């Protein structure tokens, strides 16, 4: 029996290592893509809390296995046509100034089932490559290394097919988010988000810009919880001149306070001064 050329074995083993590393890197790309899709699939919060909410989503999915990611992806992100509409996001903030988003892709039942099957097979392939590959192939012979190389080339093709299958879905979700962001930057969206004025002209008083300005005035200038109305009007005119009663269809500031139902207004002598005094109302209706 001729002696085995050890140089041939070393070269064959190095090629197995290269192909195995290529497969693992491609699998990690699949995992990272699924995590990104799930992180941005739903979120909720105010302008201040949204960064924290995003970090929480990243932490939620950061340590999950590929099998868990596939389960979440095919149940929450890529769903079967006819599935019940989503409820409130898991991190929903009931604050009237909060905003929430839930994005998902619907597939026909047959396509959805096929995706589930293929992604579960991808998980099995990943587990085999990571945990059992060296058990299945004799890497101490040239022939065994050649067989391993063939198996790894086939595995890479399968992994790459699933990555290419997920990419258009992820791109579709990104496109929806981009369109949503564009709408938020529109003048009508700005009027609603900043001033609480809907496109149909209806005013959502709890988030109205004029109410926010009055709240700031109360927190800056109130005495024992009460603020003189004239003082409040001067403060708003100085710091937020764009916030006027007329902008909200009101003739006077008293009309704003009455319509918004966000403040108490009383006439009495306070701190030696008689006049109209306002304070933020506890548990104001939204």
Characterization of this structure:
60% of the residues lie in helices and 11% in strands. The protein is mainly α. The strands form three sheets. A three-stranded antiparallel beta sheet has the order 5-7-6. Strand 6 and strand 7 form a beta hairpin. Helix 1 packs antiparallel against helix 2, helix 1 runs parallel beside helix 3 and helix 1 runs parallel beside helix 5. It is elongated and about 105 Å long.
What is the oligomeric state here? Answer: single chain
Ends distance = 89 Å
Stretches with pLDDT under 50, minimum 5 residues: 91-96
Side by side, the strands of the main sheet go 5-7-6
Number of strands: 7
- Percentage of residues assigned to helices: 55-70%
Largest sheet: 3 strands, antiparallel
Beta-strand content estimate: 5-15%
Overall 3D shape: elongated
Which structural class best describes the helix and strand composition?
A: mainly alpha
- Average pLDDT works out at 88
Structure annotation, total helices: 9
Q: How would you summarize what this structure contains?
A:
The protein is mainly alpha-helical and about 290 residues long. Helix content is about 60%, strand content about 10%.
Task: Supply the key terms.
9 helices, 286 residues, single chain, 7 strands, two-stranded antiparallel sheet, mainly alpha
